[in-house]
User: Which sequence fits this backbone?
């Protein structure tokens, strides 16, 4: 049954159905009754495994194909008319050639299957930030996940009305052949096409494909920003809440920081942390000249391994009902799930993420390192009261960060907006299991957007620089690194809830409340200004965490220069200058 009269929508669906040739087309209306039917169908097809209804009500396990467990950056394309507009950090192909190639692959790909039509909104439906999309998919897992991650159903068609202003997304599982897997964006056509994958980031098209790659392209045109950032609020004992955005690369701690539980000494004083978002922020300048952020998503697609009562109790609590787990361990005794570091009692009678009998003493991991949970944001005990606010929250600080064993200090502050943009542009981080490829090698990942920027990276930096004069009350920009290691390779900083201590310094700096030391990188905290009571961290260790190794940084500078050279003539002159200044002050 059609739920809209929008001709643009209906014509496009007809064309896509003519191409993919499904047996039937089903509109997702957003009702619980329809979703419940789909869960039942998903159980019949084996896509969904129902978990213990008493212990995990409304929860399901899904396994993706063993060759299909992470984003595929080498098969992700930005197809705009001019290759230069995609830039040197994106894969590119001419749109007409790519359409031709894809049309061949999609031809008849849904034969014998159902095509589901998912109308969805990124942002609160009808709010000034909201943007609408329609995803066509032949995967029930995608429908059920999109219903958690976005706002789905007829209200979106109502809000869209007759308008052609929606993002078209076509997803077909096809044969899941990795050789023919493509995640393709046509930013100039508001179109996304994904084929031969069933893994989250490749197929939940509202997420990285729309809310980052397409949205970053739109944001540049329309003077706003789409960023790979968490949003959190810190409420002080006086009841005032300040908001921070932070960009860390995939699997580098956004979900953890967004849901941080302050150490006891802070809780006693009355500090609280509120989660607004854990992965994506859309930022716009408000009428008051501040930068305002919304989380366009409605759920969390979070990394499971390492999530436990101690590291992230809020994330764990979020997954206790109406959650879909992907590629984790199935405990056959009580039909619950498990992953590495959930607790110290791995189930003895269990199936691993591949669905094979698994022996925890074998030394093999039971859950895939990039196994995830898809949980409704409203399950989160610390979800911000402003989560659904149509205008978002005002941002006091922007924080960049990555995984760096040696170079980056625990925290430093940039000198000003322009220097802050430079600090974001030179981010480097060790790769993780969130994307296919080697894990643990340092790569440049500017603003944590390397895999997600939908246009030329140099133009993206220019856009950041251009935003300066539009934001009268600019957030201050910082860089953090929770991942410095000692000579035995152990993390020096305790991280997780203890990161509150660094956030407190950041907010104090935003209020110009405390002094700092100037360094080649920017402002460093005075040792006594990071509150350490209640931790095992000594002030010697803190000095070590804040230390800048000049030799390593000079090597870093040449790595950055190499990267900048690759960006070529779109590199803003301001950033080249900043790099020169950094090198000179390191040599002093
Ligand atoms: P995406 O969803 O992939 O964008 O990732 P994310 O940035 O939300 O990552 P997440 O918070 O799920 O972090 C994943 C990994 O980082 C896990 O292995 C965590 O244990 C680890 N981690 C997070 N915060 C900290 C920290 O403060 N210190 C240390 N040492 N590890 C951390
Ligand atoms: C990431 O990889 O940054 C994620 C997970 O947040 S995915 O949606 O798969 O991209
Ligand atoms: Mn992410």
Assistant:
């Amino acid at each position: 049954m059609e739920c809209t009269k929008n001709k643009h929508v209906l014509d496009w669906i007809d064309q896509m159905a003519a191409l993919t040739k499904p047996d039937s087309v089903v509109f997702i209306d957003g009702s619980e009754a329809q979703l419940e039917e789909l869960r039942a169908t998903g159980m019949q097809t084996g896509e969904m495994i129902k978990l213990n209804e008493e212990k995990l009500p409304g929860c399901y396990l899904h396994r993706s194909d063993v060759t299909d467990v992470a984003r595929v950056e080498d098969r992700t394309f930005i197809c705009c008319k001019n290759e230069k507009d995609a830039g040197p950090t994106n894969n590119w192909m001419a749109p007409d050639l790519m359409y031709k190639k894809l049309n061949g692959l999609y031809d008849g790909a849904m034969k014998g299957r159902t095509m589901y039509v998912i109308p969805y909104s990124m942002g609160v439906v009808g709010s000034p930030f909201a943007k609408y999309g329609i995803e066509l998919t032949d995967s029930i897992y995608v429908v059920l996940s999109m219903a958690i991650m976005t706002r789905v159903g007829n209200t979106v068609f109502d809000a869209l009305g007759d308008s052609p202003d929606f993002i078209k997304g076509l997803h077909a599982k096809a044969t899941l052949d990795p050789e023919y897997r493509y995640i393709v964006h046509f930013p100039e056509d508001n179109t996304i096409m994904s084929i031969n994958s069933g893994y989250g980031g490749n197929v939940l098209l509202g997420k990285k494909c729309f809310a980052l790659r397409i949205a970053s392209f739109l944001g540049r045109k329309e003077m706003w920003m789409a960023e790979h950032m968490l949003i959190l609020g810190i409420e002080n004992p006086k009841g005032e809440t300040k908001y921070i955005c932070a960009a860390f690369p995939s699997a580098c701690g956004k979900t953890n920081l967004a849901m941080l539980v302050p150490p006891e000494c802070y809780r006693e004083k009355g500090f609280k942390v509120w989660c607004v978002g854990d992965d994506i922020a859309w930022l716009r300048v408000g009428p008051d000249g501040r930068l305002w952020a919304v989380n366009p998503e409605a759920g969390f697609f979070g990394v499971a391994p390492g999530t436990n009562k101690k590291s992230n109790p809020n994330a764990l609590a979020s997954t206790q009902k109406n959650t879909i787990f992907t590629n984790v361990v199935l405990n056959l005794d009580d039909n619950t799930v498990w992953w590495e570091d959930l607790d110290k009692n791995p189930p003895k009678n269990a199936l691993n993420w591949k669905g094979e009998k698994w022996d925890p003493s074998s030394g093999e991991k039971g859950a895939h390192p990039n196994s995830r949970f898809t949980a409704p944001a409203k399950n989160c005990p610390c979800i911000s009261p402003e989560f659904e606010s149509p205008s978002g929250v005002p941002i006091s600080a922007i924080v960049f960060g990555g995984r760096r064993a040696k170079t980056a200090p625990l925290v430093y502050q940039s000198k000003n907006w322009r220097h802050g943009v430079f600090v974001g542009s030179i981010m480097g981080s060790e790769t993780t299991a969130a994307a296919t490829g080697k894990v643990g090698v340092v790569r440049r990942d500017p603003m944590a957007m390397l895999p997600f920027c939908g246009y030329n990276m140099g133009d993206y930096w220019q856009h950041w620089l251009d935003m300066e004069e539009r934001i009268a009350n600019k957030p201050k920009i910082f860089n953090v690194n929770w991942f410095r290691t000692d000579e035995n390779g152990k993390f020096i900083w305790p991280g997780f809830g203890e990161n509150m201590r660094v956030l407190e310094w950041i907010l104090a700096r935003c209020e110009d409340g405390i002094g700092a030391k100037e360094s080649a990188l920017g402002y460093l905290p005075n040792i006594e200004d990071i509150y350490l009571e209640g931790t095992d961290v000594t002030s010697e260790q803190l000095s070590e965490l804040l230390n800048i190794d000049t030799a390593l940084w000079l090597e870093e500078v040449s790595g950055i220069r190499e990267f900048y050279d690759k960006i070529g003539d779109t590199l803003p002159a301001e950033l080249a200058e900043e790099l020169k200044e950094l090198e000179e002050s390191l040599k002093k």
